[in-house]
Amino acid sequence: MDNALITSPAGVMAVLVAVVSFWFWLERKSGWKVFNYLPPLIFIYATPVVLSNSGLIPFQNPAYDFLRQYGLPIFICLMLIKVDVLGAVRIMGKGVFVMLIGSAGVVLGGFLAYLLGQWITTPASFPVHFPLPADSWKAFGTLAGSWIGGTGNMTAAHAALEGGAEHLTMAAAADQMVYLIWLPLLLGSRAFAEKFNRWMRVPPDRVALMERAAANHHRVESAPTMIQLLYLALVALGFTWISLELSGVLPPVKIGDATVISASTWLILLVTTLALAASATPVRRLPGAHPIAMAIIYVYVARIGATMDLSSASLETMGAFVLMAYVWIAIHGLFVLAGAWLFRVDVHTLAIASAANIGGAASAPIVAAHHRESLVPAAILMAMIGYALGNYLAILTGRLGQLLGLSLIHISEPTRQLMSSRMPSSA
């Protein structure tokens, strides 16, 4: 809608911040059980959709451009400089490898689910109409970001793959539909701990050793001082500036006619790499980065919702994508089980490893607290590894789908022609 009621960038930004603030305030004050199943993220995304489609705020605005160009890389920087990979490895041990195998399952599962969706979509292969468009690889890559890291990685992958609002809508819907099934499974796995651990031949002292390591690592972060916040701002703005400058001069990488690394992709990859490098320095100890980063990313999610034009949305396509997401999560589950069997880890570690993938930092502590409360710090650290890897692997997932789609176009066209020649004429 071109004639929105609020068009000033400051006014639009105020609306987005107000939406984010309202839903977190309501979650804290109301205690409604609905938030156990539908986190504030869903409402933060959906509310601006309603506001923009009703004409209160515009679909396009300089405020949105500012958040995309500067807000997202600043978030990535602030989040990733806190990653403590070595700490997670010391506590969880082989459990980290199980999580990494689960991440590999997300990448391969996304590729296979996209392949299945494209095969079903091809009339010559499958006679049933299955409305999954060829560019849905952008939605697959976006969802992979969420399932390897979290919300921040989802939005970063969405930007890097140059997805539209409809791709984020598909990813967000599938994320929640799968989450409602997968989280209870991870929580309920505790009931099978003894049988599972015997089956996996888990050493009896493994859990005790993890709990001891987690207790030794736990550290309460102090409130940031003004100078520490200025240091954070300098690091975040400096890395954002460097990444923007380099992404503007680095050439795009192409395979055939397909651009697999564009300027947007370069930006995400560069700021991710710089932030992870900084996490190995004393910068990681600066307090205050996490709450600032999360505030930025939730406003960014609201910004994406505001650009969603419902007149172009397809519920049929969304349903098809959700169906493929269930195939996808099943593949991830098989990979996690295989990793647990290979490394002989307990059911608690398995559940936390999968939650660190699929639910990220929001779900991993919940699952850990249900299984073993002492492992909550370790779960957070493991989720942070997901943050570190999510951008890289999500972009890989999306680009693999893109290349697969291009291959299928060339392969399926002769098949379509062959099938068409064999079909009787309707005349």
Structural description of this entry:
The structure is a single chain. With 427 residues, this protein is mainly alpha-helical. It has one domain. 74% of the residues lie in helices and 2% in strands. Strands 1-2 form a two-stranded antiparallel ribbon. It is globular, with a radius of gyration of 22 Å. The C terminus is likely disordered.
Could you name the key traits of this structure?
two-stranded antiparallel sheet, disordered C terminus, single chain, mainly alpha, globular, 427 residues, 18 helices
- Quaternary state reads single chain
Helices and strands, in N-to-C order? HHHHHHHHHHHHEEHHHHHH
The count of DSSP E runs of length 2 or more, i.e. the number of strands, is 2
| Overall tally of structural domains | 1
What count of helical segments does DSSP give? 18
**Biggest β-sheet description:** 2 strands, antiparallel
* Shape field: globular
Straight-line distance between termini: 45 Å
Question: How helix-rich are the residues, as a percent range?
Answer: over 70%
**Going across the major beta sheet, what is the strand order?**
1-2
**Low-pLDDT residue intervals, each spanning 5 or more residues:** 411-427
Structural class: mainly alpha
What is the CA-based Rg, rounded?
Answer: 22 Å
Task: Tell me the layout of helices and strands.
Blueprint lengths: L8 H22 L3 H4 L2 H14 L8 H19 L4 H8 L1 H28 L15 H12 L2 H10 L4 H24 L4 H7 L6 H12 L8 H24 L3 E3 L2 E4 L1 H16 L10 H18 L8 H29 L3 H12 L1 H12 L4 H47 L5
Helix pairs in contact: 1-3, 1-14, 3-14, 4-8, 4-12, 4-13, 4-14, 5-11, 5-18, 6-7, 6-15, 6-16, 6-18, 7-8, 7-9, 7-18, 8-13, 8-18, 9-15, 9-16, 12-13, 13-18, 15-16, 16-17, 16-18, 17-18
